[in-house]
Amino acid sequence: xxxxxxxxxxxxxxxxxxxxxxxxxxxxxxxxxxxxxxxxxxxxxxxxxxxxx
Length: 53
Description:
Elements: H1 16-21, H2 29-52
């Protein structure tokens, strides 16, 4: 029997000291953009499934 997740709450704590030492060179923009596009795609799939009901 499949489980359907209707809501997902994510809570994070950001340590500003650690964030300040991170350089922009260590951030891979392609990975970030891929994650954002995958998230957007999942959201549209969820919305389509809601409309089908």
